[in-house]
Amino acid sequence: MSFGDTQKTPFSPQAVADEVREECFFRARFLATLRNDRMTWADRELETLRWSLSTDPSESAIV
Asked: With contact defined as beta carbons under 8 Å apart, do 49 and 21 qualify?
């Protein structure tokens, strides 16, 4: 997220949801690279997280 972004404020619920989604994506990928046997688990968790955040981001945002 860029603080110079004029389309959304840094602390809007959508911006927070985007940050959480991005952070979870990178953590899942990092864990998957540490343990190849966990790749399938990390991918499943990531897809579940993406689905839950995309269905209703207002409920998933940390405010």
From this structure: yes
